């Protein structure tokens, strides 16, 4: 059975840069609070005409160009997001249309901050079994339009940013390379600790004036609880990725964790037994871009020369659901 290799990566963020001081003009917050609590200094927000699918198209085109491929060479699209452009259909078909292709399957994966790793697991299984050869795996989010940009929403509004990351995946027969393992987890007992209640078909009517007034259409988070679980379960998932492959922290070239909070990333690094130079962080510049954060960070890390052929890459994520996951990849 072949393994799955990362053929190329790409990312795209909107042009509109939003600083912490910009946010302090919209709500009662400060650069000091945001920097100390999260490590975030800037994030990017979409402007008129931009959507999740257009961000994803830009990221995908960059990855395809690096891979030396055309959109028409793809066999399948796996699109990970928790901020879809529309209730239905899924964003995969909108990206497909943006890329000017048709007929190949397009699946949406709705696993929030763990979305990219859930999507990787799906794509990896399809490539290993031979179902599809060239898969475009995308994580893309437009959070900015959904944020409550008043003091009421400040605990979440300062954290999230927009962006897209894409990877082109394919089979390799080289037994020393590729995706070694992906481990996925979920615990729905915590579903309401980070969620958007409505509009939703659990409600009748599924959307109402009252619901909007109550802010049910905004993401609500129990930040402390999310922090507590994330900083324990992400390092555990890293341990598992290493143990499952007979590896140790010393074997890791680079850990690319989901970028939710610099304090969480630093705790994961310490609890997983890694040195700071083994971990990539760019949350200071992009904020939390949910399913896009790992592919954006990965593309940057590659451009910075942080990974070479044969190196060991570990990915880990945690988020709403709760869901969490890790992957081990021999580059
Ligand atoms: O992607 C996965 C999902 N997300 C996460 O992993 C995020 C996990 N959680 C976190 O990153 C942190 O919990 C936060 C950054 C969200 C918050 O940090 P914290 O140290 O846990 O702060 P807190 O929620 O305990 O709030 C401390 C204070 C509160 O005031 P009082 O009650 O102590 O007077 C908040 O009202 O800070 C206040 N606060 C703010 N102040 C200024 C909350 N948001 C803000 C803000 N600016 N933006």
Residues in helices, as a percent range = 25-40%
The portion of residues forming beta strands comes to 15-25%
Shape: globular
Strand order of the largest sheet: 1-7-6-4-5
What sequence of helices (H) and strands (E) makes up the elements?
A: EEHHEHEHEHEHEEEHEHEHHHEE
Q: In the CATH scheme, what's the topology name of the largest domain?
A: Peroxisomal Thiolase, Chain A, domain 1
Let me know the largest β-sheet: 5 strands, mixed
Distance between the termini: 18 Å
Number of helical elements: 11
Can you say what the CATH homologous superfamily of the largest domain is?
Thiolase/Chalcone synthase
Total strand count, please?
A: 13
Return the domain count.
2
Assembly state here?
A: single chain
CATH architecture of the largest domain: 3-Layer(aba) Sandwich
